Amino acid sequence: MSEYALIVVDMVNDFVDDKGALYCGQSARDIIPFIKGLIEDCRKSGGLVIYLQDTHEEDDKEFERFPEHSIAGTWGHKIIPELAPQQGDIVIQKQRFSAFFETELGDLLRKHHIRDVEVVGVCTHICVMDTVGDLANRDYNIAVPRAGVADFDPEFHEFALKRMDRIYGANVR
């Protein structure tokens, strides 16, 4: 059992591919090689790779605030091929910004005796920050590498990094 997990947040076609419904821009494409390297290192070291997959039904209430995206079973919902999960990785489908909302993430981290968590992915000021906040509320040691997160809003991206550092105590590096 590992004490370290890498959480890869919402690296799905609708956010990361330029044909996606909520494309986060070139910055989302730019982080792919860095995340790929982290995933490979995590697997080699025996860490746990956890993918969070934004998942919605066609009538999701979230579509009152955002365009339809990441609908279960569609191309946009799939994790990008460059970061495809492998055997031993875990994929958690989530319906809200925080990966702890009505998912098995908390139980999974406890089961694997995880204490140290590194978080990468998109969008920095939404799903990344909300998940990091819930990790902080559960007293995990959290790292957020700047080279591994991206956002469609540069101002909110910077705000989220500051908040995760100053308020949540994450090691933003």
Describe it for me?
- The protein is α/β, with parallel strands linked by helices and about 170 residues long.
- The protein has one domain (about 5-115, about 125-170): 3-Layer(aba) Sandwich (Rossmann fold).
- Helices cover about 35% and strands about 20% of the residues.
- It is built from six helices and seven strands, in the order βαααββαβαββαβ.
- It has helices at about 15, 25-30, 30-45, 105-110, 125-135, 155-165, and strands at about 5-10, 50-55, 90-95, 115-120, 140-145, 150, 170.
- Strands 1, 2, 3, 4, 5, 6 and 7 form a seven-stranded parallel sheet that branches.
- Helix 5 (about 125-135) runs parallel beside helix 6.
- It is globular.
- According to CATH, what is the topology? Rossmann fold
**Beta-strand percent range:** 15-25%
Arithmetic mean pLDDT: 97
- The CATH architecture is 3-Layer(aba) Sandwich
CATH class group: Alpha Beta
- Count up the helices: 6
The domain count comes to: 1
Cα shape: globular
Query: Which series of helices and strands comes N to C?
Result: EHHHEEHEHEEHE
Please name the fourth-level CATH homologous superfamily: Isochorismatase-like
Radius of gyration: 15 Å
The biggest sheet amounts to: 7 strands, parallel
Uncertain residue segments: none
